[in-house]
């Protein structure tokens, strides 16, 4: 007997099925990878946002500390400037008082100085000659630019001369003179 095969069996080509299956598996892996990466990036963003929130408090505190540090430095500079520019009141007072003739007979009523370089000196001097002498001696001081006798009154039985002087001071000259004396 002869075998006649009306349906020829051909070998099936599975290559398209393998390629399609591989493409589907790779596509599935890519979708899974991209979704996993997206979730990882979202988690990283959430973690970073939390860290930013935590660090904002630290940054604000550091800014506050820096501001305080800047203020302290500014205050130090201001204090040094004030120290350099201040009037040495005790030394100025002593210098002015040393100029008074007959100091034992003189009553010092008032000694006021201002930052503008003006000194108000109110005294009770025993004689008219002492008033003139004091005015000249004050004018002879290297840091005195002007002396004005504002008032003079004769008071009491002892005939004391109540006087008020307005004295203008050159601050730079005063600083130089007093720094030499120290």
Q: Percent of residues in helical segments?
A: 55-70%
CATH topology of the largest domain: Gyrase A, domain 2
Main sheet strand line-up:
1-2-4-3
Beta strand %: 15-25%
Mean pLDDT, to the nearest integer, reads: 87
- Relevant CATH superfamily of the largest domain: General secretion pathway protein M, EpsM
Q: Judging from the principal axes of the Cα atoms, what is the shape?
A: rod-shaped
Distance between the termini: 144 Å
Give the second-level CATH assignment, the architecture of the largest domain: 2-Layer Sandwich
Overall number of domains? 2
Order of helices and strands: HHEEHEEH
Query: Structural class of the helices, strands and pairings?
Result: alpha+beta
| Rg of Cα set | 49 Å
Total DSSP E strands: 4
| Low-confidence runs of at least 5 consecutive residues | none
So what's the CATH class of the largest domain? Alpha Beta
Largest sheet: 4 strands, antiparallel
Number of helices: 4
Organism: Streptohalobacillus salinus
Protein name: Tfp pilus assembly protein PilN
Transmembrane segments: 14-36
Keywords: Membrane, Transmembrane, Transmembrane helix
């Amino acid at each position: 007997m002869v075998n006649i095969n009306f349906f020829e069996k051909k070998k099936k080509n599975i290559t398209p099925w393998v390629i399609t299956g591989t493409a589907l598996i790779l596509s599935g892996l890519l979708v899974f990878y991209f979704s996993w990466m997206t979730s990882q990036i979202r988690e990283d963003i959430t973690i970073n946002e939390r860290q930013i929130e935590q660090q904002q408090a630290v940054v604000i505190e550091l800014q506050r500390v820096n501001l305080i540090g800047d203020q302290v430095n500014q205050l130090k500079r201001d204090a040094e400037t004030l120290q350099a520019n201040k009037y040495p009141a005790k030394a100025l007072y002593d210098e002015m008082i040393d100029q008074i003739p007959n100091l034992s007979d003189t009553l010092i009523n008032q000694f006021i100085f201002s930052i503008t370089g003006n000194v108000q000196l109110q005294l009770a001097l025993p004689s008219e000659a002492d008033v003139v002498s004091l005015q000249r001696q004050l004018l002879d001081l290297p840091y005195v630019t002007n002396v004005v006798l504002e008032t003079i009154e004769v008071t009491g039985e002892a005939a004391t001369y109540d006087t008020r002087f307005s004295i203008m001071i050159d601050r730079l000259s005063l600083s130089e003179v007093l720094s030499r004396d120290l």
